[in-house]
Amino acid sequence: MEPAWDERGLVPAVVQDATTGTVLMMAWMNREALALTRSTGDAHFWSRSRQAMWKKGETSGNTLRVVEIRVDCDADTLLVRAHPAGPACHTGKTACFYRVMAADGADAAVAREDEGVPAAAAAPDAAAADILGALEQVLIARRDHATGEKSYTRSLLDAGFPKILAKIAEEHGELADELPAGPDDAVVHEAADLWFHVMVGLVARGIPVDRIWQELGRRFGVGGHVEKASR
Asked: What are the backbone dihedrals phi and psi of residue 144, each rounded to the nearest 5 degrees, phi first?
């Protein structure tokens, strides 16, 4: 299907993380950019300001490996589903859409950026994948940048796996106590505690959370017995 190119020969392309569903960025494509994207598998766009073709991540290394390209019902917008090799935004944020427009129309970051907490972490209506991605970035920041401030996460990382594994076991036990018949709020609380400490362990190992999503995605449509037998 041919996109409905505008009078400049362009079409907007919204980029979505194929694993988490996070909307990463928006850019423009012309026919050449679309052709290059389809032939190489890496996202290419047309820069209106520079009047030039550009490959996402050509200088930063934060490329976008395209899984599929979808066309909307009017054929005037593309959805590029891709696996990002790093932050999609030139600011270093995971995605370009890290600010919320307030009721008065003013742009405002929705999180304590000065405290190292990504915006998505404080957005109450953010997609689950956005929140988990933001949490991962906080944990990585705690791991890689000592601030001198007291941090529970940093204390776990400094203590190493004996402490991290002990907390995972503790939280697992508390969730197991509540899950059969405990109040819903208690189950949710304990599940969140366990999830958090598992993520600390993943960050300590240097395993991206995206790897977990990819593994879960791989298992769709595969029977449990078949999956276990294939290990």
From this structure: -95, -15
Q: What is the dihedral of CA 69, 210, 142, 159, to 10 degrees?
A: -170
Look up tokens 């970051």; give the residue.
109
User: CATH topology for 146-217?
Assistant: Helix Hairpins (1.10.287)
| Burial (CB count within 10 angstroms: exposed 0-12, middle 13-18, buried 19+), residue 42 | middle
Give the closest residue to 63 by CA, choosing from 71, 55, 74: 55
pLDDT, tens digit, 9 for 90 and up, residues 129-180: 667 877 888 898 889 887 666 789 999 999 999 999 999 999 999 999 999 9
For residue 28, which phi and psi values (nearest 5 degrees)? Answer: -115, 145
- With a threshold of 0.70, does the pTM exceed it? no
d(Cα 117, Cα 167) in Å, to the nearest integer? Answer: 23
| Inter-residue contact 118 to 131 (CB < 8 Å) | no
CB atoms within 10 A of CB 142: 22
CA distance 194 to 189: 9
Strands 11-17 and 64-71: unpaired
- In three-state secondary structure terms, 28 is strand
- 133 Cβ neighbours under 8 A, 6+ residues apart: 20, 22, 94, 120, 209
What Rg value do the Cα atoms of the chain yield, rounded? 21
CATH class as words, domain 11-84: alpha beta
H or E, element range at 84: strand 78-84
Domain ranges of the chain: 11-84, 146-217
